[in-house]
Amino acid sequence: MIIFKTNLGDIKIALDFDNAPVTAANFKQYVEEGHYNGTIFHRVIKGFMAQGGGFASGLDEKETRASIKNEANNGLSNKRGTLAMARTQEPHSASAQFFINLADNTFLDFSAENVQGWGYCVFGEVVEGMEVVDKMTLVETGNLHGHGDVPKDEIIIESAIVE
Q1: Coil, helix or strand at residue 105
Q2: Given this model, what pLDDT does residue 18 score?
Q3: Model pTM?
């Protein structure tokens, strides 16, 4: 289990090492290294997702390790409450950024091993604290430093620990 202690409350996350072993281990390692401590949820879109893991306060981008293999072809679906890896258009570009699905976003699921079909790898789910995630969607968002959907009042992961 991973616990995110945020300024809105705690979120408890179960990682799926059986279906996404590389991704779950990568995420756990970032937690153990303290990477997520002090990071913000920098992109929140009501009815879609809340993204974090890449920026400290003020949208200060954090350094990451190398990208990992996309395991989105693991049979898991981007359902409400699941965690998936954020990435660029390059399917195998995920590193530290993740998002929590606020709705069933099955259009993000794997469909084929090509650029359009790779999808976004689900590797865990919120098992406690989904009401905290839902609170994130109540925060007003705007544009900041070229980024959209940025919460005007920062949503901070004060600490992330392995339980």
Answers
A1: coil
A2: 98
A3: 0.97
